[in-house]
Amino acid sequence: xxxxxxxxxTENSRRTELLSISVANVLxxxxxxxxDWSAAGLLLLYWLELGIDSVWALVRSLFAGRPPEIETDSVxxxxxxxxxxxxxxxxxxxxVYLTTVVVLPLTVLIIASAWLLTGALLIGPLPAPSSNxxxxxxxxxxxxxxxxxxxxxxxxxxxxxxRRHNSQTAFRGLLFKMVTVILAx
Length: 185
Fold this sequence. Notes:
Keywords: Membrane, Transmembrane, Transmembrane helix. By secondary structure, this protein is mainly α.
């Protein structure tokens, strides 16, 4: 467990973040230069990375430390928002607010629809990449998923960043990333 302690220590936060960002950015370069990926393979990886970012944003949203900012005038969600009911996760300082649980399925539907639309705009018109490219892109996406997960667990949960966020702020950069991926495509 010394590796886990080193990854989670607050002293190396910039190094861990730099490592995670480097992994996410060097994998496409390796794919294009060494593995001869086409533009379709590169766009497929960026689209999968957008889905990975969406998954980790949903995790951050579910365990956000502050209650969501919801108007209390609505019937069902408003009553929950006025009282701020929450469930605590045993042996941690984490809470899951019931308003987040009620609103999260709609959020998942919106995010999934936007992700699929982005894929239809980016990947749909392109020719299918080769099976070697798909294998490489899948391996790169797995690496990005793991590095993003380590960064989320380390910064958001272990270092307590979740205390400063509510379910809305957990999605802060996701829309910008979607627009950027569409424009880049």
